[in-house]
Amino acid sequence: MRALEDYAQQSAGADARYTELEQIQYLSDRSDQVLDLVARTAGDEHAVEEVAGMAAQAESVTDAFGHALREARGAGWAALPR
Known about the structure:
Number of helices: 3
Structural class: mainly alpha
Helix content: over 70%
Radius of gyration: 18 Å
Shape: rod-shaped
């Protein structure tokens, strides 16, 4: 039973990371619009820092999503009857 609970928890974590990844992909697909907004609201130096921060966040979420998927897969295998 514990293995099934672990699987459910890991799956929920993977789902949350996937939602974050979808949001980042949405913003990435509209990067020109985001860059225009940043350029209109901040100076060039600040805009570059902001975009670099967004890129680092996207990479971090992508890594977390991959980790959550691996954990969910492992918990799923452990939950299967042998």
